[in-house]
Specification:
Layout lengths: L1 E7 L7 H13 L6 E6 L10 H9 L5 E4 L9 H13 L3 E4 L5 E2 L3 H34 L21 H9 L4 H8 L3 H13 L1
Parallel strand pairs: 1-2, 1-3, 3-4
Antiparallel strand pairs: 4-5
Helix pairs in contact: 3-4, 6-7
């Protein structure tokens, strides 16, 4: 099976140019495109939320060929592209690009690349984790607090703007169900809020 993968970032962009380019390439090389995977979505989105992950990566099998105009069609970050290529190469799925002239397949060079992609992605994940830890440590050394202070409750809730009104209605003897319905919340939500404002 030969797949043609084309992607643009926005709904206003046209897929035709990429399709024509792939069709010309296929004709020159005596290849027939069996199935097109087309999508209009940002490359920053994770593959699993795109047709790339939900369709192409799920259906492509060993020996299949995926042709796209350039390798950047797979994603906007290096780590994302490496992960996608590693996925294909580990399953002996060939990836060909036209502008970059990549021919990734079942040869030893591609297997070495698959290993390198996986290793690079793992190193990048570790570096991101380490930078995050260092950043948090620096913030703590500066005496800044991260997150909500221990033991401190939020002082604002969904019904907070209606505190006085709720108190007045309860004092006037209005049923909680009626107040909750009027404010568009469940009875339990109102009841929890009442307990909070009574104990404050």
């Amino acid at each position: 099976m030969v797949y043609g993968y084309i992607r643009v970032s926005t709904l206003h962009q046209n897929l035709e140019n990429q399709q024509l380019e792939i069709e010309k390439f296929a004709k020159r090389n005596g290849i027939t495109i069996d199935k097109w995977i087309e999508e209009k979505i940002s490359g920053t989105k994770k593959p699993e939320s795109r047709k790339l992950g939900r369709v192409l990566m799920q259906h492509a099998k060993e020996g299949d060929i995926i042709i796209c105009t350039e390798i950047s069609r797979f994603g906007r970050s290096l780590i994302m592209i490496m992960n996608v290529l590693q996925y294909f190469l580990e399953r002996d799925i060939k990836v060909w690009t036209i502008k970059d002239n990549y021919r990734l397949g079942d040869d030893i060079q591609s297997k070495v690349l698959a290993f390198a992609f996986g290793l690079s992605a793992e190193i990048e994940r570790q570096l991101i984790s380490e930078r995050t830890k260092q950043g948090l440590h620096r913030v703590r050394l500066e005496g800044k607090h991260i997150g909500r202070k221990m033991g401190r409750k939020s002082d604002f809730y969904k019904l907070s703007p209606h505190d006085e009104y709720i108190k007045q209605q309860i004092k006037a003897g209005k049923a909680k169900n009626a107040i909750a319905k009027e404010l568009g919340v469940a009875w339990a939500t109102l009841n929890r809020h009442l307990k909070r404002i009574i104990t404050e």
